[in-house]
Amino acid sequence: MISTWSEWKRYPRAGRGENLEAPITPGIYEVRFAATGALHSFGAVDNVAQALALLPSASKSWFSRRAAAETPDLEYRTCATSTKADAKAAADRMIGRRETYLSGAA
Fold first, then answer.
1. Hey, what CATH topology would domain 9-61+70-105 get?
2. 0.85 surpassed by pTM
């Protein structure tokens, strides 16, 4: 079973004491750039909160003494599902609809 999408929320910034608000269940997440609405990342996962929490760490450099680059202004939304299989099926349908829309718009 799939629930509805949450509202768009500002992605928490490091050092400001902000928290993610996401389910700890299987589901789908979508992250976009706040200024443009362009897609940053999307996925169907076992634990939505954990997946979102790990996203900014990908930009951290393990080989440099410099501070990581400023994280872009991001927004996220989530959709909880009963199982990861439901999440994957819903994500595949969304990707299919997006590709159909884009191919028709070209």
1. GIY-YIG endonuclease (3.40.1440)
2. no
